[in-house]
Design brief:
Rossmann fold, 5-stranded parallel β-sheet, 5 strands
Length: about 230
């Protein structure tokens, strides 16, 4: 298991997290922000949910064969995140990078609770994960995410729609019900976990401008790559 880090992680780097429903626009904004930060000379490391190869094949096979119960689903993703944290998040934090995360432990808190897992149990599993320096929650109506999904012509994922929970035989209806559960969980934890709420129904450019403005105090006096070279 990764080493424990306390709230206010104490590492030289900064941890910036993007959370929200599928189709909320968070991934687009995270990628844009990462590129902008790099163009400003900051050392940036970008990481995504389910990016560990340790259990990726197991999760894929389990989903394909419909073998994942809410508990096994939770434990497998916790294993994936622990490996991702230990290999991808912690080293650049220690090295003084800006670590931009497209989803963090909060995704598990929300999804596992929506599938019926005890929220306190889930939080205990992820207790090694420190509080980020900034967490942006992209708030958007479920109807908008469904409309965006249909417009993209991408097939709605079985688990993304919560079809494993038997909410409805109709994929769009199941999607709406399950994503509504996720949204309620996000709204429930937003204050306690100090999320910065972003209205993601606005134009991409306006949202990106707000993100950059919001991060300005966090980046104040934070060294760029050129600063470190000069110090050396």
């Amino acid at each position: 298991m990764p080493e424990t880090a306390s709230v206010g992680h104490g590492f030289p780097g900064r941890l910036i997290v993007f959370e929200g429903l599928d189709g909320s626009g968070k991934s687009t904004q995270a990628a844009l922000l990462g590129k902008w930060l790099s163009s400003r000379g900051y050392r940036v490391f970008f990481t995504e949910w389910n990016s560990s190869e340790l259990v990726a094949n197991v999760i894929r096979r389990g989903k394909k064969k419909g073998l994942l119960t809410p508990t096994t689903f939770s434990l497998l993703h916790a294993t994936d995140f622990a490996d991702r944290f230990d290999r991808q998040i912690l080293p650049p934090l220690r090295a003084g990078y800006l670590v931009v995360c497209d989803r963090y432990a909060y995704t598990a808190f929300v999804r596992d609770a929506a599938r019926g897992c005890d929220p306190d149990w889930v939080r205990t599993i992820y207790s090694f994960a420190p509080r980020p320096d900034r967490t942006f929650y992209f708030r958007v109506p479920v109807s908008v995410t469904l409309r965006r999904k249909i417009a993209s012509r991408l097939k709605i994922n079985y688990y993304e729609a919560g079809m494993d929970l038997g909410l409805s035989d109709d994929v769009e209806e199941s999607y709406t019900k399950f994503q509504s559960r996720l949204k309620r969980e996000y709204e429930r934890i937003a204050a306690a976990d100090q999320f910065t709420i972003i209205d993601s129904t606005r134009p991409v450019e306006a949202i990106q401008a707000d993100l950059r403005t919001n991060l300005a105090p966090l980046l104040d006096r934070f060294p760029t790559g050129s600063d470190l070279m000069h110090d050396g």
